[in-house]
Amino acid sequence: MIKILTFKLITILFLVVNYISLSQRYNYWKRRFLGFAFVMRNKNCFRHIGDGCYISSDIVLRNPNDISIGSLSEISRNVTLTTWRSNDSKKGPLIHIGDNVSIGEGAHITASNLIKINDDVLLGKYVTITDNSHGYSDATDNFLAPSEREIVSVGQVVLEERVWIGDKVTILPGVRIGEGTVIGSNSVVTKDIPKHSVAVGNPAKVIKKLTNKN
C-alpha cells in the first residue's frame, strides 16, 4: 500500500513539474513569436531594422522613425526608447543600435542628440542611457515646472564595440565608453571610460585594465 501511494505521489509530482516546464516553455516561445511579429508589423515605422531582430511587443516607443536597429539585435520587454527632436537635432537617427546588440529588460534609452550603441554590446536589466535633461539647470529654469522646461542635450553618448553594461547602470550625457569595456552594476557613468577597462562606482572609476595575457 505504501509503495503504491509513493508511486502515485511521484507520478503526480512529475506531472506537475512537467506541466510547469511546458507552461514556461510555452510562455517563452509565445513571447518570441510576438516579438518577431512586432518587428514584421512595425518595420516601416523605424528608420531602419536589420534582419533577424527581436523586439518585445510590450516596449514603449516614442518617434521610432528616429531609431535605427542593426541585424540580429534583441530588445527585451518593458524597454523604453524615446527621442525628442529640437532645432539642434541632426538629420540622422537619434538612437543608433548596431548589430548583435542585446538590451535587457526595463532599460530606458532617451535621446535628443545622439545615442550610438555599436556592434556586440550587451546591456543588463534596468540600464538608463540619456543624452539630455530638462532645461539648463540655471536660475531661470527654477520658475518653470520640470516637465515644462526645454529638453536640451549636453553631449552625445557612444558605446563602442563589445561593451558590457551591468544591471541598473546609468550613463549620463557626453560620455564615450571604449571598446571591450565592462561597467559594473549600479554604476553611474559621468565621463569617458577608456577601452578595455573595468569601471565601477558612483561616479564610475576605472579599477582594472583588461590586457592580453599573451
Features:
214 residues; alpha/beta; 6-stranded parallel beta sheet; 19% helix
Number of strands: 22
Strand order of the largest sheet: 2-5-8-11-16-19-21-22
> Beta-sheet strand percentage?
25-35%
- What structural category do the secondary elements indicate? alpha/beta
* Biggest sheet statistics: 8 strands, mixed
Apparent shape: globular
Cα gyration radius (Å): 22 Å
Account of the protein in words:
The strands form four sheets. Strands 2-5-8-11-16-19-21-22 form an eight-stranded mixed β-sheet. The radius of gyration is 22 Å and the shape is globular. The longest helix has 41 residues. With 214 residues, the protein is α/β, with parallel strands linked by helices.
Question: What topology emerges from the helices and strands here?
Answer:
Blueprint: H1 2-42, E1 48-49, E2 54-55, E3 60-62, E4 67-69, E5 74-75, E6 80-83, E7 95-97, E8 102-103, E9 108-111, E10 115-117, E11 122-123, E12 128-130, E13 132-134, E14 151-153, E15 157-159, E16 164-165, E17 170-171, E18 176-177, E19 182-183, E20 188-189, E21 197-200, E22 205-209
Parallel strand pairs: 1-4, 2-5, 3-6, 4-7, 5-8, 6-9, 7-10, 8-11, 9-12, 10-15, 11-16, 12-17, 15-18, 16-19, 17-20, 19-21
Antiparallel strand pairs: 13-14, 21-22
